[in-house]
Amino acid sequence: MRAANGDGSIYYRASKDLWFGAAYVLQADGTTARKEVSSRNRDVVVQKLRKLQTDSDQGIPAEATNWQLEAFLRYWLEHIVKPARKPKTYQGYELVARVHLIPDLGKKKLHKLTGADVRLFMKRLRNTCLCCKHGYDARRGDKKRCCAVGRCCERHPSDRLVEQVHAVLRNALQAAVREEVLRRNVAKLVQVQGAQYDTNRGATEEQARLLLKAAKPTRLYALFVLALFMGLRRGELLGLKWDDIDWAEKTVTVQRTLQRVNGALRAVTPKTKKSRRTVPLIELCLEALRVHKVLQAKERLAAGKKWVNTGYIFTTEIGTPIEPDNLRRDWYPLRVQVGLGEMRFHDLRHSCVTLLLRLGVPPHIVQAIVGHADVQVTMAIYAHASLEDQRKALEQLGEAVAG
Prior knowledge:
mainly alpha, 8 strands
């Protein structure tokens, strides 16, 4: 009897003294293609063919059963991460996979990867000089000064980078478990020391006042006001458009973030569902925005035909979006002027959280203002920055007990 379409076929080749089975099954790119199996035993071929077809019916690509880690990482990035995650997230995962995971673990068979393999890889990564490994010094040409001339600079990965590499591998292997390619995630068996963050990363009330005073004469004063009083992320600030402001209701709606992805500036949806939010604007913020709108109108007139009408609130002097990394040119002089040390621009967001909580604002309200996915994130930032509050609490205890 002739097999029905989709059932596959089994046949014997006398020239090779082998039984063969063939069927059209799912491939990694989502298409179907003819796949062959063989054995000297016909029953074994039947079992292999049924396994292929069952895997295909469950959405498991044919080659997954014998995948190397490199092949699965590329499949995972292209068909699982890319369609579901933000472009910047995909870009970060792809970079980690390409630079760190594939060169060291890429040839390992996925189903043979062990916890010991991962543990040894993480130890090797932590103890490797990145300058030696990637030839940073060698690319300096005549200006070589360390690794390329035999004086290793010991530029080891930061705890944060090690944590990121482990997280990408763990996420990829977890996807393999969900796809039923693996039975367990061996990366979960390996513990990695988390990055340690400094306390007091936010600005104090006095530093915040000095910052606003120093920023007042600059063309991006309104941006620093919104960063400090509303805790907006850098990309959220640069992604704001005038249409997002409701002057009557005195609110701003955060509905996009500006990021550079694969060489191009792109407006993408906010980081999380709760990042997309409508927040009330206090009068200080509204006044800063009114002044900024007048300033932008003057810049439009000065630019003339060079002006690009993008609708963004914060732009260059010809109306184009501001490159996120270029914001440092405005931030670094201000932090030096105010004496903020190495404080990052992102720490203005932390400052907003910390100052609000110190004023006794309930954490869930602060969470809603800054758009954290979970209130635990809000409290974690406060815990990093509340050393002074701890001191005050202990002083109160001392006064209560010791008089």
